[in-house]
Specification:
The protein is built from 5 helices and 5 strands.
Length: 154
């Protein structure tokens, strides 16, 4: 079980909850934020080890705290905060085109994942950037299990 914390920032509750369950099952503490103001607050107070950040927020969610947030603005704010400036940010988005990828990397993203996200690739990237050992490969007829889990099937 890792003591690492991952902050998931996404306006979509299904995405947030699915990723939170996935990372919890993989041994991480999962923190969740719905908008930029929550993300900045959690990053300042909880100091996660990694932030998984959506880029596109609808206007009703993206205006938390009176600010018209999007993922790029959230990245700008995080990089200005002493408590959060060194936290790696993985960007995820449904946005198409090289603009999103190029801008994300220009703003300091450590990785970029188009949605829908391949969870195994995401977990491998998270483990790599956090300096954790790779998981052993799954047996051919069995799916990979999170650390600490045991396969009880035939």
């Amino acid at each position: 079980m890792s003591d690492k914390k991952i902050l998931i920032v996404d306006d979509n509750s299904l995405t947030r909850d699915t990723l939170a369950r996935f990372f919890s099952a993989s041994g991480y503490a999962a923190l969740k934020a719905v908008d930029g103001s929550q993300a900045v607050s959690i990053a300042r107070h909880e100091r996660p080890d990694l932030i998984l950040l959506d880029l596109i927020f609808p206007p009703d969610v993206g205006s938390g705290g009176g600010v018209a947030w999007d993922g790029f603005l959230i990245m700008d704010w995080l990089h200005r905060l002493e408590e959060a400036k060194d936290i790696p940010v993985f960007v995820m988005t449904m946005g198409k085109g090289d603009h999103y990828r190029n801008t994300a990397f220009a703003k300091g993203a450590a990785a970029f994942f188009p949605k829908p996200i391949n969870q195994e690739e995401l977990l491998a990237a998270v483990r790599s950037i956090l300096g954790e050992p790779e998981l052993p490969p799954a047996e051919p007829d069995r799916p990979a299990l999170p650390p600490g889990w045991t396969y009880l099937g035939p």
